[in-house]
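New to this. Explain the following:
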Amino acid sequence: MLTLQGPGIFLAQFAGDAPPFDSLPAIASWAAGLGYRGVQIPCGDARLFDLELAASSQDYCDELRGALRDRGLEITELASHLYGQLVAVHPAYQELFKSFAPAALRSRPEAWQEWATGRLSLAARASRRLGLQAHATFSGALAWQLFYPWPQRPANLIEDAFTELGRRWRPILDAFDDAGVDLCFELHPGEDLFDGATFERFLASVGNHPRANILYDPSHFLLQQLDYLAFIDLYHERIRAFHVKDAEFRPTGRAGVYGGYLPWQERPGRFRSLGDGQIDFRAIFSKLAQYDFAGWAVLEWECCLKHPEDGAAQGAAFIRDHIIRVTDRAFDDFAALNSDPALNRRVLGIG
């Protein structure tokens, strides 16, 4: 049995232009001071990380890892959610997502996919140079606007969408396979991969590619009213990354799962800081221990109420207290009997 690693923290929601959040050494010292042992780095934030240099320079990667280790930290994963989003963007969302693309490309949506594919290939090489096992991203979406089946869809529309999505991602998955790194999709509303059923469709579209895996975040499942514990039973072999994020769902007579276009503070489903929501993390950590999840437990802070620095400070202890150091022996070993075929036959009444 394996003990998962942690606590880690995803730096994307904390990076900023003011110290200590404006450089990797400073934000790493801050995270280490809170008790974190790992950092998940958004590879598109130039304040923290140079993706092109990491993809080409082993010296840069070694120096970066050394600087973090001097602070008692490891890199858990690189994350490329904004690049993954641009692999597939339906025209309905182009105005909203164009800020994720470089300024020179924002007027040319047809160029976004090629650019994002190249960035993800760099992320694969950078992950290999950093000695990482997994990478976090989004799938993008061609069919999300069709999630509710009205108006009726033309025959095979969803099948065609996933065929095209698989075509776009297959070369990226191959690049990660060449690098020896698992590509982990955060299953998230707004993406074409948002639950188990859509992940299965995607797997079929990429021939069950061994590098197509899952970043497990139970908050997105609670808000969809999906059984986030049964999900682990079904897909544990593909879960290779883990965001520890809390949420609550309190439907009213006015609004439910779809949220009524309400602001986050007023939605029935909303993200919360760890321990303030409804998710049963003791059961989640138990299941991950049961299935030998060996990756990192990484805080992703998103809360519409609590200050982020308080959420981060409390999150390190919360994760640490939930990690199960797995046993190296059975609890009833004290009563064990040696193998004895003759005894076995007598106990069974067959000899």
